[in-house]
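Researcher: Please predict.
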Amino acid sequence: MIDFSVEPDFQQKLDWMLDFVKRECEPLDFLFPHHGDPYDTKNAKSRAIIRPLQDEVKRQGLWACHLDTSLGGKGYGQLKLALMNEILGRSYWAPTVFGTAAPDTGNAEILAMFGTEEQKRRYLQPLLEGEIVSTFSMTEPHAGADPREFTCRAWREGNDWVIEGEKWFSSNARYAAFLIVMAVTDPASEAHRRMSMFVVPAETSGIEIIRNVGTIGDSLAGDTGTHAHIRYNKVRVPADAILGGPGMGFQVAQARLGGGRVHHAMRTVGKCQRALEMMIARARSRRTQGKELSEHQFVQGMIADSAIELEMFRLLVLKTAWIIDSQPHGAARTHIAMCKVEMAKVYHDIVRRAIQVHGSYGVTNETPLASMWESLLSLGLADGPTEVHKVQVAKAYLKRVEPYEGVFPPEHIPTRLAETQERYAEILEQPLTLEALG
């Protein structure tokens, strides 16, 4: 049975979260607006403000709820986490306040599943407590996220692994206590067995940040970027730094992506909801040509289109979370790809309409819409380009159908009509009346 209800106790948690995020987290986006601010653990002022907020979240039992109970989390399924992330998506700071900021969430899961006891002691627990942040260093300047083109490599020398090569867009490396690095260890093997994953302390000799790359909206002046272009110059780590074993880099990476993509999609729902709220408030409060904006049919159309698109996308993400919770591992792969594809489109359309309804005010940096628009393009690239996920969806559907034989397709009306006439020939050839049928 399909049931969209939420347990009363959990709904109370969601209600508390929504009020808390609006009241406490959204203002932090204005006070500390830089992309890297939530990850800068050495900023005494921001930490002085968020520590009490994090303590309150912990008292409410809502800290790091993505984690299994063995790691101090609630063991919530993806459906509940989706509803929570819908609220967290309203604020850039909210994930940090609630202990669910990426990439630390996925890196924590990797360490929990594949790390040694010493790595868990040194990194996992401080990461779970929000005391440190981390980096996932996978993509490369010439290859993007295509592992078949990676050239950063690692090889054994005695009891150590040596890593050499360059990585691109390694987010938050300038703040990280450790990096999880993917490197090629078996170039001759098939694509999913070429790579291995390593945990590398940030202070390790040979890690060279070529530059911290800024994104759209960041100033070119000064070193303020948060996505590092890194050279690993024969970085040496001990044998047990490898995660999961040689050739398991792809499996380790996949272990962190599925649920994370659902969380990302649902946070986008929260961002879209906030943009829609702003659009509606503006439409009800601004007058032009003698009446409210809300009375103009073009504006009504923008609001209606946005509300409908958002509702459809939200239901897609919730269904995907439900599949992850209720069906075998991997069953949601196609739906996860659907979420990834639709996420950027819905976000683009709703934010664009919100800006349009705000007029010149919408293109200033005096509303959250500006930063929403700046982050738009990254949605089509993060966790793999949209085009890759479209191909995945198409292939999944194409596998379900075999080619038909003959000249005409299965839905050829003359052929189907002839088949149907033959099926009911005995009835069709007899003169019958309604009275005879009785």
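Model: The longest helix spans residues 297-326.
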